[in-house]
TrEMBL record, chains A, B:
<dbReference type="Pfam" id="PF02423">
    <property type="entry name" value="OCD_Mu_crystall"/>
</dbReference>
<protein>
    <submittedName>
        <fullName>Ornithine cyclodeaminase family protein</fullName>
    </submittedName>
</protein>
<dbReference type="InterPro" id="IPR036291">
    <property type="entry name" value="NAD(P)-bd_dom_sf"/>
</dbReference>
<dbReference type="InterPro" id="IPR023401">
    <property type="entry name" value="ODC_N"/>
</dbReference>
<dbReference type="InterPro" id="IPR003462">
    <property type="entry name" value="ODC_Mu_crystall"/>
</dbReference>
Length: 316, 316
């Protein structure tokens, strides 16, 4: 078994690769077999182990992503979430590689927002508003930059110092972009063509009344029922709401679970997912409408990027 | 993540270690958390991936055993079953080691037979009869040798050539033991103090009428409902029947599932497992009775040997 660190994966596999590989997989979902993920609590609160296996029957390759959640880790300068992906060659049965899964998880989530932005936002979108500048933010930025001619990025974070640190870390890598930190989230929401939310908030991070016609929103933060990042009063105003994975959103996305209960939205009448956008290949928006993409993740997205990264690493 | 090959695990972790570590774990089962295993079919017939996670809450260490089943592998000189074990440190959340799981699986299965033999067979057992000389046989031999003063080993295999190959491979390592291959399994059954079955047979490999009073039998072969290695007409004659894992036997052991349906045995009235033998610490046999141990395996046994092996490898 070959072992690849985060640095090695990062050096060989990039946002454009991830977007391409996920789109390819979405076009051939019949080849994918996965089960519900397994969770074993390992301590107080959210402390747990998550196991997400998935196989590609066509390519005869399988993965499992093994994730540890250690809530008190930040006190010890360690990440809360640590992921590792094991790849098995199903033709020979051999377990061939171990890939650090942290970067790949952030990258596939950024790629999903990129794909949604590509199919759902106005093609002339130039201003990106980012709410939340934590661990997932950079790859969310990259996903949007990959598909739209972004010239300006507005940033809001509850702790403004963290937004400053983020800009200090990324501005040099993107000299063509103007970065501006805002202290009032309303300013960001009113001015942005695309709003990208990546927080762990349990209350809405923006006011639905501030969202202008023609805006596309990506929400990747709420991945537990108690998390409610997006203001769900916006949902009735949206012309299109697309999910990365309907079953996952039903179980995990707090603002949608609440909206369904309150009658602001109905899972029963909902059929739009990213697979439909990509396979049908048409942009689903009118110029002046509001569109929303909600992402919670699923093992087959990890499969797409893990096999893609392995392919690059193995032939490098 | 550190990676250890089969040869490295084998050089540092042995049968006595495995027996000790499994007994220790059986005495502290409250510390163990596991879920049912996940199976994803990956092709025709039994071709599949198996995922068996398990955590030790006390030690704050977790494992997952990832096993590929590739039925046509023997045609290509590769093993049908290939296992890999990933260890996670739950205190830090770090994925710390990858251990080849093939030897550890054989070793823990041999250790389970060793533990059963130790608690259930006559202490003066000197003749061991082995039915089946395939991939699991050597560690089954080692498990019995570890706990009883075996002087003679009788061997039967459907293809006699394979029994000869097995003896040629192991005889030099055990010069104190007399090995004898028999062509009639009845001779083996009538003469043995302990009978150890490790076959994939779908029909009984011995006749219940041949089993003498005072014999102990270990059956490790039937791990699917269609497999029926032991003659279940023997079950009503046994003074004690002990399982490694009751839930697993109910689902997987063909001869017991059939016996329960036919009324030769009742799961409903059955409570003896290896945990009871070890924790209670008493041998459950009378001198002239027939005793049976049935083993199908479970993730917590893999946990015991993986953490034990890691401990040796990491401090070596």
């Amino acid at each position: 078994m070959k072992v690849f660190t985060e640095a090695e994966v990062k050096a060989n596999y990039h946002m454009a690769d991830a977007i391409c590989d996920i789109e390819q997989l979405l076009k051939n979902m019949d080849d994918i077999s996965q089960t519900t993920r397994t969770v074993i609590p390992t301590g107080d609160g959210a402390k747990s182990m998550l196991y997400m296996p998935c196989v590609h029957l066509g390519k005869q390759q399988g993965i499992i992503k093994i994730t540890s959640i250690t809530p008190d880790n930040p006190q010890h300068q360690r990440p809360t979430t640590q992921a590792n992906i094991i790849i098995t060659d199903l033709k020979t049965g051999e377990h061939i590689a171990s890939l650090d899964g942290n970067y790949l998880t952030r990258l596939r989530t950024g790629a999903l927002s990129g794909i949604a932005t590509n199919y759902m936002s106005r093609t002339d979108s130039q201003i990106l508003g980012m709410i939340g500048t934590g661990g997932m933010a950079y790859e969310q930025l990259l996903g949007n930059l990959e598909v739209r001619p972004i010239q300006k990025v507005l940033l809001f974070n509850r702790t403004i110092e963290k937004a400053k640190t983020f800009v200090a870390q990324v501005a040099d890598k993107h000299p063509e972009i103007e970065f501006e930190i805002v202290s009032d989230v309303s300013d960001l929401v009113k001015c942005s063509d695309i709003i990208n939310c990546q927080t762990q908030s349990t209350t809405p991070v923006f006011d639905a009344a501030d969202v202008q016609n023609g805006t596309h929103i990506n929400g990747i933060g709420s991945y537990r029922p108690e998390m409610k990042e997006m203001d769900n009063r916006l949902f009735p105003k949206a012309s299109h709401i697309v999910f990365d994975d309907l079953e996952g959103v039903k179980e995990e996305a707090g603002e949608f679970i609440e909206a369904d209960a309150k009658g602001l939205f109905s899972f029963a009448n909902h059929h739009d997912d990213l697979k439909g956008c990509v396979v049908d290949g048409n942009t689903v928006r009118e110029k002046d409408s509001i569109t929303i993409f909600k992402c919670v993740g699923a093992a087959y997205f990890d499969l797409a990027v893990a096999l893609g990264a392995w392919n690059k690493l193995n032939t490098h």
